[in-house]
Amino acid sequence: MTVKKILIIDDDQALAELLAEYLSSDSLECDIAQDGYTGLDKLRHDKIDLVLLDVMLPGIDGFETLKQLRQFSKTPVLMLTAKGDDFDRILGLELGADDYLPKPFNHRELLARIKAILRRFEYAQQQYNTDSTQVGNLILDHNSHNVRLNDQEVELTGTEFQFLLYLIEHLSQLVSKETLSQQILGRELMQFDRSIDMHISNLRKKLKSDESIQIKTVRGAGYRLLIETNQDA
């Protein structure tokens, strides 16, 4: 089994070392950065499979770190929010976080979230026999997770890519939030969890340049992706 490398960006050294020790006992290799600048430097030069990113950091905070990270990397990010309020969670997801976990958290819950993210990213790279999926003006590259719309690149996070791909696979079908949470986030949908809504909202914003693509909300039920394709011969 390939060892995955986790980068913990947290200025609480004692907590970071405790997390590294716990995660390392489960075949995960861990590195620690105590500020955003150091973390970004490691991400530019090392192969990192997942980032644990604390919101409260010295210098640049977790949100600014995430914003700069997304300018050059699609590495999945699990944000650790001290306050645990909606503002931190929503802002993190808007900036490109893949998931969040409020402090204090159970270490087993953290490990489960990490494994779910790593598992779905690995699965997404292995499950397709073809290199890409195309529907209408949209092309999704399975290997690089790059997306092109009308020959223009669309910057999606890995998780947004997987949401879009799943909706394409179930084109025109109603997909429930519960299903999306299980299939993409790898966990049961929690009460008052806004993560699904935010990922879908991000997708809408990034695909809005093409009116033939619509992600419809079915209130109380889920979402339906509709794509008009040119049927003319």
TrEMBL record:
InterPro entries, per database record: CheY-like_superfamily, CpxR-like_REC, OmpR/PhoB-type_DNA-bd, Sig_transdc_resp-reg_receiver, WalR-like, WH-like_DNA-bd_sf
Instruction: Using the record's annotations, give every residue carrying the modification 4-aspartylphosphate.
Output: 54
Main subcellular localisation: cytoplasm
Residue ranges of the annotated DNA-binding region, renumbered to this chain = 130-227
Residue ranges constituting the Response regulatory domain according to the UniProt record: 5-118
Q: Which UniProt keywords apply?
A: Cytoplasm, DNA-binding, Phosphoprotein, Transcription, Transcription regulation, Two-component regulatory system
| SUPFAM superfamilies per record | CheY-like
- SMART domains in the record, alphabetically? REC, Trans_reg_C
Q: Give the OmpR/PhoB-type domain ranges.
A: 130-227
- Cellular location of this protein? Cytoplasm
Name of the protein: Response regulator transcription factor
Annotated organism of origin: Catenovulum adriaticum
